[in-house]
Design a protein that fits this description.
72% of the residues lie in helices and 0% in strands. It is built from 10 helices and no strands. Helix 5 packs antiparallel against helix 6 (100-116) and helix 6 (100-116) packs antiparallel against helix 8 (133-159). By secondary structure, the protein is an all-alpha fold.
Length: 214
């Protein structure tokens, strides 16, 4: 399932109309999916809204109905992918015991989600670089958001006595930096593979705080 379908599931009972009689929630999903593909292939500056409209089978008017301009569309993709990533992590750790098991699950889910949604990862981590303050602020917010999420589980592990006291904010940010660096390398060079990253990085990060997987 693509990212747009994951974020905007079909709602059979709801029929709201644009001027062409298209259901807005499905139109938005088509625009999101086409935008992800086009931004990932061409980058932000070389992408035109006409291209996204053609690729989505909609129109510029439909795009403007949901997003006021290209910048807001791009930033919307970043925010929606972050929401999806957070939901997947929270859903996966809900049934896990408090402590390092949650930390490990959060790391693996984060990496697996980036691997599954490669286009979104490329838009967030590669295409958004150097696009100005609004884009850098959005990337920083996403980074801090997930560092805090992992940090919460690390703090639980400290309180449970599973690892020694650490500087949780610094460690969480360092871990996100390592994850981002490897995902960026993968989406730009195809190496190392997502499986290699998971198998090597997760145990290394856990060992860095004195925890050995059991």
């Amino acid at each position: 399932m693509n990212l747009a379908a994951k974020i905007y599931p079909k709602v059979a009972s709801r029929r709201e109309s644009l001027d062409a009689g298209i259901e807005p929630i499905n139109t938005r999903a088509k625009i999101v999916d086409a935008a992800l593909d086009t931004f990932a292939r061409k980058g932000y500056h070389d992408t035109k809204l006409d291209e996204i409209a053609d690729a989505s089978g909609t129109s510029k008017g439909a795009i403007y109905f949901h997003f006021p301009n290209k910048e807001k569309l791009f930033l919307g993709l970043v925010d929606e992918f972050a929401n999806l990533l957070e939901r997947r992590v929270v859903d996966e750790i809900d049934v896990a015991p408090v402590g390092m098991q949650r930390v490990e699950i959060a790391l693996r889910t984060c990496l697996n989600t980036f691997a599954k949604y490669r286009r979104a990862a490329k838009v967030l981590l590669v295409q958004a670089v150097g696009l100005g303050a609004a884009f850098e602020d959005a990337r920083t917010i996403v980074n801090d958001r997930f560092a805090r999420l992992i940090g919460r589980y690390l703090q639980e592990a400290v309180e449970q006595g599973q690892i020694n006291p650490i500087n949780v904010p610094v460690i969480s940010l360092a871990w996100m930096g390592a994850i981002y660096a490897l995902i960026i390398r993968w989406v730009t060079t195809n190496e190392p593979s997502p499986d290699e990253i998971l198998d090597a990085l997760v145990p290394a990060l856990l060992r860095s705080v004195g925890y050995v997987e059991r």
